[in-house]
Design a protein that fits this description.
about 375 residues, Aspartate Aminotransferase, domain 2, 2 domains, four-stranded antiparallel β-sheet, about 40% helix, about 15% strand, binds pyridoxal-5'-phosphate
Length: about 375
């Protein structure tokens, strides 16, 4: 039985309330989005104007699914279901798997969607903590202690939001081996994959285990959140099952988005887009790092390995939600309180915007925290 009793998604509520009101938004976890103009050449501009605004193939057009499958080793279009954002992808997986009495082991801190959905489906989310003093790593021993025959799902986020940690292939294998012993599914949200600050692309959980499911999309590493394109990668029978759940949510994505996403994921464009993301991260991180170092009496941080966010601990005895709301009201700057990741005492600061906005916002955030300190 599905309960669907709403559990407020505090991060999304907070951002929805403030992000279009404030002058400086550092709550965004992706890089500065593209303009449509930057993606379309002359031929594509004509093509898009001549497209019928009909329904697209409801699991995603064949060419888009083929392009998505190329992001994964030994995958084909039958392994892909296109969704409206990775948030719909996560929703469909949770809805199709979780029932009353089930447990979902959920990596924390994390984007809290699966946490809330597990409760809404009548299940119980169980925390798997990443700890800053251990380098935000996955503790396989903790998973072994907490997993049981009630564990329907183990939910990971790699690269992790909000810490920017990356988990390697051996760790993912370790998680899947534990899951296999209990017949549990592993869902890995990989929407930040491709947004690494340095080094290789984050490994995917795809292909490691029969019951491993990947959710992802174009919102973060690709800088295209307004397209609302996400996807699920799984074994073909799982995809077919999830497709029938998709019939009840949004049927299909928009025809325009399918077209633009397809273009963005063509091999050449894809590399150009991901290089731009990495350039933005490499350019902006030193700005935030310098700012942290200049405020080291207040903030402690671990350098993120991926994603346009940093999760920093602050040295003040004030609740993080109070801080973020006061900052938005008084300085018109939006950051995310650690409360939204069940970790009060931290704030998440996004650094993927343009340099001018980032620098101006950080001056304001610095002034604000100093005033809280009573300086
Ligand atoms: C880990 C994670 N998954 C999913 C989402 C939702 O993204 P989308 O725009 O693809 O629905 C977010 C948004 O911040 C996120 O951080």
């Amino acid at each position: 039985m599905v309960y669907l009793k709403l559990e407020t998604f505090h991060l999304e509520r907070f951002q929805s309330k403030w992000e279009h009101i404030v002058n400086y938004n550092l709550a965004e976890s992706g890089v500065q989005p593209f303009k449509l103009e930057e993606l379309l050449g002359d031929r594509e501009k004509i093509e898009i104007m001549n497209r019928f605004l009909g329904y697209v193939q409801t699991n995603g057009s064949n060419s888009l699914r083929a392009n998505i499958s190329e992001l994964y080793q030994d995958a084909c279009e039958e392994n892909v279901l296109v969704t409206n954002g990775s948030s719909e992808a996560n929703f469909l997986v949770a809805w199709s798997l979780l029932e009353k009495g089930d447990e979902a082991l959920v990596m924390l801190p994390n984007y809290m969607q699966i946490w809330g959905l597990a409760k809404m489906m009548g299940g119980t989310p169980v925390p798997l903590w990443l700890r800053e003093n251990e380098g935000w790593r996955i503790d396989l021993e903790e998973i072994k202690e907490k997993v049981s025959h009630k564990t329907k799902l183990i939910a990971l986020c790699n690269p992790n939001n909000p810490t920017g940690a990356i988990f390697d292939q051996a760790t993912l294998r370790g998680v899947c081996e534990i899951a296999e012993d209990f017949g549990s599914w592993v869902l890995c949200d990989e929407v930040y994959r491709g947004a690494e600050l340095e080094g290789n692309k984050t490994p995917s959980v795809w292909g490691i285990y029969e019951r491993a499911i990947t959710s992802s999309g174009l919102s973060k590493a690709y800088g295209l959140p307004g397209l609302r394109i996400g996807w699920i990668m799984a074994q073909e029978d799982v995809i077919n099952r999830l497709w029938s759940y998709h019939d009840y949510t949004t049927i299909c994505t928009s025809a325009m988005s399918d077209y633009v996403a397809n273009l963005a994921l063509e091999a050449e464009n894809r590399e150009r887009i991901l290089s731009r993301t990495r350039r933005i991260l490499a350019r902006n991180w030193p700005i935030l790092e310098r700012w942290f170092d200049n405020h080291s009496e207040i903030f402690r941080y671990t350098k993120p390995k991926a994603g346009a966010v940093s999760f920093a601990r602050y040295n003040l005895d004030i609740n993080s939600t109070l801080i973020a709301e006061k900052l938005a009201r008084e300085k018109s700057v939006l950051i995310v309180p650690g409360d939204h990741f069940l970790m009060d005492g931290y704030v998440r600061i996004g650094y993927g915007s343009n340099v001018e906005l980032l620098e101006k916002s950080l001056v304001l955030v610095g002034e604000f925290f100093k005033s809280l300190q009573g300086k």
